[in-house]
């Protein structure tokens, strides 16, 4: 029996506080036509956090952000590969997310890969996100923040 191929990506749940309200950044992938979070494939020589940092800069233009220590969520699901030797084949996709805080409201989307963005309260973000697994990532991040992590 053949072992299913695996692909790994890393990304970020980004939030900012407006007074006592937490707003989460959702981005619209023009290529995939879905709402989600900054995320991309882990490149050779990168670790998970380096990939997440690179993707934040590439997909949002944000520069002033900081990681929230202790949060890491791994979303594992079946997908069809769109890369390399496994293109078109079913794979096991591992998407690893970290939690980041920023003070910046302005996001620079490139209108090529990323078509739009929104800062949203939890329930609005959950309603907008395209996949249940992505919603679960956001719920765990929100619970982590609500658990009294002073950041």
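^ structure tokens above, recovered residues below v
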């Amino acid at each position: 029996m053949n072992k299913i191929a695996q692909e790994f990506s890393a990304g970020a749940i980004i939030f900012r506080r407006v007074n006592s309200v937490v707003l989460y950044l959702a981005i619209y992938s023009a290529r995939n036509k879905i709402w989600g979070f900054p995320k991309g494939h882990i490149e050779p020589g990168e670790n998970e956090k380096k990939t997440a940092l690179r993707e934040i800069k590439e997909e949002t233009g944000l520069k002033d952000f900081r990681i929230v220590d202790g949060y890491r969520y791994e979303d594992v699901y079946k997908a069809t590969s769109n890369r390399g030797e496994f293109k078109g084949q079913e794979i096991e996709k591992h998407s690893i997310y970290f939690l980041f805080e920023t003070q910046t409201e302005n996001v620079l989307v490139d209108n090529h890969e990323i078509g739009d963005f929104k800062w949203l309260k939890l329930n609005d973000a959950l309603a907008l996100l395209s996949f249940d697994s992505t919603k679960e990532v956001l719920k765990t991040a929100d619970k982590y923040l609500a658990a009294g992590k002073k950041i």
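The CA atoms of residues 15 and 97 lie 13 Å apart.
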